[in-house]
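Reviewer 2 asked us to include a model.

Predict the structure of this chain.
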Amino acid sequence: MDIQEAFNTAAADYDRLRRILIPCFDDFYKTAVEIIPESYTAPLKVLDLGAGTGLYAGMVQAVFPNAEFTLLDLAAEMLEKAKSRFSKMGKSPRILIGDYVETDIAGPYDLVISALSIHHLSNADKERLYQQIYKVLNPGGMFVNADQVLGKTPDLEKLYRQQWLNSVYAQGISNEELKAAQKRMEYDRMATLDIQINWLEAAGFQDIDCWYKNFSFAVFGGRRATI
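Predicted model (structure tokens):
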């Protein structure tokens, strides 16, 4: 099974399990939405990389009803869930099926978002993607990445993994659901927050920050200069 098959298989129960598999679900996603400036009143052109079922994008759409979304993901079954989510809001996002490392994401966009996806890329691909995102943003545009990051040291990473396991057990996850989640985690290729901040700086981003962090779950990003 490859990563595309793994996430197509997970599509049916993906949203239901989010609150179990993301122990800090509410604060994590709340921050990822609230960091987007309310001053974005004009119709926003938004790209969601690794959009999945449209969970994050749907939250942004609810706050910015005039936003126009492009949802890109390699798992068609996940995107079907996203289409249904947006349809219930009376919206019809542009749907692209593909690997965003290989897909031309030519913009321009006012906002690029991603949630729990970029950590599947190699470090080299992450760095190149951040450069590409910067290029497709309009001046003043913003990138928000709500993702998982690697602990800075082996001991910290061990702590992160154990804390996550304790939390999902406390939430009552079944053995079958845990095994399926751990199978998908075999595709994780996480990088530390610090090195990703460095890549964003090298790409040209400004106002770079980590707006939220809970063990391995972090919301971070930056802006393209207005000039």
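The chain has one domain: 3-223. The radius of gyration is 17 Å. We have added this to the supplementary material.
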